[in-house]
Amino acid sequence: MDTSGASSAPGRSQAPAGPPHTLRSRRAESAFGRGELANWRNVTRIHSAVYRWSGGRLGARLAGIPMLLLTTRGRKSGLHRTIPLAYLAHGNDFIVVASNGGQEVDPAWWRNLKEHPEAEVQVGRETFRARAREAGPEERAHLWPLLTQANPAWESYEKSTKRRIPVVVLGRGA
């Protein structure tokens, strides 16, 4: 389960929802291992906290790749969930990739956005409301080479999964 940066309101931490024995957790554990999953969740929580605390001055780039903070509303819990994501700026939109590290299931943040497409995005010091939508086939075909050039990991993730990885457009204004 992708609950990195889980919080009841943006900026407040809360323990991940659900018991550790849920099916989603078992899937994630099989991909990462229990200890690695816990470490990954801690890293994303710390990254989100530092990004927000510093007003986007710290954490806005990770290994040279631009990062944003995406806050979604949980589709079941209704709680706000924040996760740092790599992005590509494209005109007035921000493009993110629902790769989930190449796993066979969509990340929780994308499942949340499909249910509640309104979100909050922080890019550097700027925070704004956004509306998410999946890129259509032609738009995806145009964006995918740009995305994999910006972050080659996405290409390897696509090769490691049978699912078509969603390309998500975050448009300003909800």
Order of helices and strands: HHEEEEEHEEHHE
CATH fold category name: Pnp Oxidase, Chain A
Largest sheet: 8 strands, antiparallel
The top-level CATH class is Mainly Beta
Structural class: alpha+beta
General description of the model:
The chain has 174 residues and is of the alpha+beta class. The chain has one domain (23-172): Roll (Pnp Oxidase, Chain A), CATH 2.30.110.10. The chain is built from 5 helices and 8 strands. It has helices spanning 23-32, 34-53, 108-115, 137-150, 153-159, and strands spanning 61-62, 65-73, 80-86, 88-90, 93-97, 118-123, 126-134, 167-172. α1 (23-32) packs across α2 (34-53). The radius of gyration is 15 Å and the shape is globular. The two termini are 26 Å apart. Mean pLDDT is 82; it is low at 1-32.
Give a quick set of tags describing it.
alpha+beta, Pnp Oxidase, Chain A, 8-stranded antiparallel sheet, disordered N terminus
Offer a quick outline of the entry.
Helices cover 34% and strands 27% of the residues.
Give the topology, please.
Layout: H1 23-32, H2 34-53, E1 61-62, E2 65-73, E3 80-86, E4 88-90, E5 93-97, H3 108-115, E6 118-123, E7 126-134, H4 137-150, H5 153-159, E8 167-172
Antiparallel strand pairs: 1-2, 2-3, 2-6, 4-5, 5-8, 6-7, 7-8
